[in-house]
Each structure stands twice: as structure tokens, then as C-alpha cells.
Amino acid sequence: MPFQKDSKELKRKSIKSLTGIRFFAAFYVLLFHSGLSFATKAGLNDKIINFLSHGYLGVGLFFILSGFILAYNYPEIHFNKSFLFKFYKARFSRLYPVYFLALLLVLPFVYQSLDLHSIASVLTMTQSWTLKNTGMGYAWLFQAWTLSVEFFFYLIFPFIWNYINKRSLKNVYMLTFLVGIAIVYFATPILAPGEVVKIGLEAYQLPLPILRAFEFIFGLLLCRIYILTQSVFLGKSGMVSLNIVLILMILSFSNNIYLLSLAIVLVGVLIFQIASESSPISKFLGSNTLVLLGGASYSIYLLQVPIREYSKLVFGSTLDKFISPIVLIYVSIMIFKYYEEPVRKWILKK
After folding, report:
1. How many whole angstroms separate alpha carbon 48 and alpha carbon 341?
2. In this structure, what are the phi and psi dihedrals at residue 132, rounded to the nearest 5 degrees?
């Protein structure tokens, strides 16, 4: 059981399997960016190509997982200066150091296309908050638009989580169902910067963080159910395996945006399932190797572009396709161990 009471407080142990699954989300995005074109040119099976073409949906896993883990680590919200300062300081230490490093690494390849507006938006992590399809969301560092959305989640978390915490289990179940429906109905996992959402015959343009917040809130709600019930039924091997098969089938056989969005809802359920750590799959995801790779997943996700560009300079554009993913994973592990974690701890001590 992840919660243990003593005489003073509620102590939480880390859920290692949730760290391990982060690697597969980052690797899926990496396959989408680096492996899809190769698979297409190589004439691989259509189902494999279809699966790889949906690698961008790994971002949806990150958003749901972010909500789940934040809710797990902060079971209670205190609206005072001390708590909020520590919370936002912890979020800054988690998000910004690697983000800033990635910006510096890619700067030599993009500086000519930057202007003051894009620089200010990227440095303040608001580049994907635009209403218009200006391309601003992809400024400076392509993948960083997701960090801009994540930053918005951090800002709203104390208020949304405080509201959820006051709801009864019955209401939480209902809200979870409704938010899951909203994710599918609006096809939010498909949305990227500047895109519109359709409601009936009308198309609306809303700030992307608001639309993608459904996935984050879904993670919060799933964690609330997890905390309140501590149920391990869904975490049994058969249930976990069935869910994984359903997810893989949708990603491999379908291009329907609503089915693909349903797959991300099922991914949220999968996060809930493996959090119980009662199946061999959870134990596999919680192994030391995958926990290390999961820890490095932030860098794996964010450093794809700069590592690819530097690999092209060193190895050439042909070999780069094979070498840069290996280099990326190795460099990301080094950054996680010797930069990300030390800097985060240093900031938290200040």
C-alpha cells in the first residue's frame, strides 16, 4: 500500500512503475519523429507504420500522468504563501533547468528565425497560449510547446485539485466519466498549437492549454479514485494486459480521431492500473533500468532536435538516423544524473 500512517503525518512512497512508463511515452514520440519516415521508406507493414504515425499521442500520456503524480504527491492543498511558494519553486526546479539547457543547445540552429516576441514567449513558457495559428507554439524548440501547456497545468493545479479533494467518491466517479467523454468528444489528444476544436458544425479556437487541460484533470481525478479506494482489481495482470492490447489495436488499426482519443483515455486507465503495482507489468516498469530511463525521459523528449542536429554535423545525415537516437538516450541519462537532478536539488535548497 502506498500510504502509511504514523503518529504525525501521511507518508507516501514513490510509485516506480509510473516513472518507468514515462520512458515508453518519450520513446513513442521519438519513434514518431525519427522512425516513421524510415519505416515508410523501408516498406514496413501498414499496421506498424500506422502505429508509429500516432507517436505524438505519447504527449497525452505525459499530460495525464502529470496530473496523477502531482495529485499523488500533494494529497492536500494549503492556500498560504509558504505552501504555494514551495510548490511553484518545486515545479520550476523540475521543469526549467532542462528546458533552458535545450534552448541553449538548439539556439545555434534557429537564432536567425527568432524575434523579440518569440524569444519572450518561449522564455516565459507561454508560446502555445496564442489563439491564432501563428506558428508561435513551435518557436525556437519544436517540442517545447508541450512544456508551455504543462506550465499552465502547474498554475491551475492547486485550485483544481482543491476542488476535486472536496468532492465525494460518487461525484469523483461522475466527473471522471464526464472528463473522459470530453477528451473523446473534443479529440483533445489530437490538438496542437493553433488548431481549432469543432463542436457540432462550428469550429472554435481556444487557447491550447485550456483544451488539453481535460487530460491533466483526468489524471487528477483518476488519482483521487486511487487514493480513496486503493483498489487493485483493475491492476491484475489480465486486466492490465487486456487494456494494453486494446490500446495497441486502436493505435495500429485506426485513424479515427475519436478512437485515438479513446486510446488516450484507456492510457489513463492504464496509469491507474499500474499504480497499484500488483502485476508483473508494474514490476517490470518499476525495474531499476526503466526507472533510470524514465528519469531521463524528460531530456529524451526535449533534446531530440538539438541532438539530431549535432549528430548530423558529426555523422552526416544518413548515419544520423541510426546513431542520434542512441546518442540521445545516452546523453539524456548523463544529463539526468549529473545536471537535472543536482540542479533541481540545489534550487530546492535555496
Report:
1. 36
2. -95, 155
Grid coordinates belonging to 212: 488539453
Higher pLDDT, 233 or 272: 272
What is d(CA 252, CA 224) in angstroms, rounded to the nearest whole number? 31
Q: Once rounded to an integer, what is the mean pLDDT over residues 109-127?
A: 93
- Can you tell me the distance from the alpha carbon of 215 to that of 63, in angstroms, rounded to the nearest whole number? 6
| Residues 6 or more apart in contact with residue 133 via CB below 8 angstroms | 193, 194, 195, 205
Q: How far apart are the C-alpha atoms of 240 and 273, rounded to whole Å?
A: 6
- Type of residue at 259: L
Angle at 189 between CA 187 and CA 194, to 5 degrees: 85
For residue 187, the model assigns a pLDDT of 93
Assigned C-alpha cell, 58: 505519447
Contacts of 156 (CB under 8 A, 6+ apart): 213
pTM exceeds 0.90 for this model: yes
Point out which residues pair with 204 in neighbouring strands.
197
Residues contacting residue 234 through CB under 8 Å, at least 6 positions apart: 240, 269, 272, 273, 276
HSE at residue 38, side-chain half, CA atoms within 13 A, is 12
